[in-house]
Amino acid sequence: MKLTGRRESTNVDDRRGMSATKAGGVGIVGIIIALLMTFMSKGSIDLTDIISNVGQLSNVTEQAEGGREFTEEEQALATFSKQILAGTEDVWTEEFKKLGRTYEPPKMVLYTGSVQTGCGNGSASMGPFYCSADQCLYIDLSFFTSMKQQLGADGDFAYAYVIAHEVGHHVEYLLGTLGKVHQQMSRLNETEANKLSVRLELLADFYAGVWAYHDNEMFGSIEDGDLEEAIRCAQVIGDNYLQEKARGYSQPETFTHGTSKQRMKWLKLGLQTGDIRRGTTFQCSDAEL
Q1: I need a surface site. Which of 27, 165, 171, 269 has the fewest CB within 10 A?
Q2: Is pTM, for the whole model, over 0.70?
């Protein structure tokens, strides 16, 4: 991506290097990566090994008072993340104006290992996540290294897609979709709730594509190979891909984020149209999804 000269968002809470205690709760991506690590090393799944691998993924460290020095790579990722967040602020401010609304940007929290959020404890093994209770998106930048090493997803545009996806959940929150769907999910059994979760995640993928379309229109940010990076990333974080790689088969009833095909489809649609009105994941049938 072309980001030279782009501004950095100031709507950032940098908690990296602060003293942290190990937090409970592991996201679906973290669990599946831990499963993959265990299976690849032992050829079988054992609960003790999974717990050990989740602990390795969380990379929780007690920092000395006063923090620590960050590497050049860590600082570059922090700068990059702030620039991408700034781009989402610019794009969604204009898109909300078209809707006759005011965009209220989320805060991005950079942290190391574990973090306290309005939604409870968070950890690096959960991957980047959005909390509607405090309207913040949380990122341990080591996740990008895990993407590269564990999933083979690399490149600045792939990383930008991850951030834009979480901002997409904030857009869902501001438009009222997130709260409404979460209420519906609380009244359903796990399988039916998972189906709604998939539609939320695919909508966030679509919004990430919409952002990329307009960011390129504003700044000419997309370079050769960028789209392929994002599509590759969408492919390898599909539920079916992750489950099949971890254990050789997948269970569609447990999907919470969508298949590789679905994630690529909705990201592409946003990238190609830039039209927020085309985000119809809750209007289309299962077959059309």
Answers
A1: 27
A2: yes
